[in-house]
Amino acid sequence: MIASILTGTAVALVAAWGALALWIRAPLPRGARTVLTLAWLASALAAIAALAWPAWHPAAYAFIAAVLALLIWWHTIRPSNDRNWLPEVARQTHGEVDGNQVTLHNIRNFDWRTRTDFTPHWETRHYALDALQSVDVALSYWNRPAIAHALVSFGFGHDNYVVFSVEIRRKAGDNFSEIGGFFKQYELSVIASTEEDSLRVRTNVRGEDGYLYRVHMPLDDARSLFLAYVDSANRLRDTPRFYHTLTANCSTIVFQMARRIVPGLPLDYRQLVSGYLPEYLYDLHVLEGADSVAQYRRLGRYTDRALASGTATEFSRDIRQQVPGIKPS
Description:
By secondary structure, the chain is α+β, with helices and mostly antiparallel strands. It has ten helices and ten strands. The longest helix is centred in the N-terminal third of the chain and has 24 residues, at 2-25. It starts with a helix and ends in a 10-residue tail after the last helix. The relative contact order is 0.11. InterPro entries: Lnb_N. Residues 119-274 form the Lnb N-terminal periplasmic domain.
């Protein structure tokens, strides 16, 4: 009896996963995908019925064959760098390291007016590792308090910042879906950009809510983290990878790179629910200048300062006003 219950549960879980995989990724028109998904679910129900009625055993064998076919098809879905990408992810950041000097190619510096009206600029910039002075984590919220997009900004003095963002590489016609992120719907992308691009577009164009946190860490670790981003960007250019909602997203990738630099960082649920990263950083004692997470959040919220910022040249300075741990400039 227990064995039948466990087997039935396993069949139901495989059936649910397979139905979503077929519905989201099967390269068929909507009507054909509907028929195929319903046929898959019917086969799974027949396999479950075989647990109670021996006469249905052929249906169980048919479902096993269908599972094998599905897994073979699933294995053939491979990530690619050659698709019809949206303009903002059309190029891939990559870098060259020569001793103390790092050259980054394809830094995005778009002039955004609306979501669809913008002037594209892709730039090459040079950075000296010994000039790195600061690391800031920016969180951008658009819907729920538990979910935010995490970006890391490296400061090289004189309001010279470069932001790394780990995100989906969307194709023309793509709409973001957390569920789709479990089923190879998007490739993974590491984009370097200016703050006037990646931070400003989120608050001033997309209507998101932005927060900034100064992370205090040894400069050697900060340089290693910067180089880890460059290495990740180079790897993705050479070997594409799928985005995954849980295991390969903006916050988990940051954590994986940070663990390479600071071994033993504790696992924590807040690495998955990125909206609560401030609490995680506070518990790691890498935030300074405020007495509580609530105070960090209140003073670190830069949305209004971003909206009020008059020029791109002053944007980075404006959004840092009052942020705990950052000295007034």
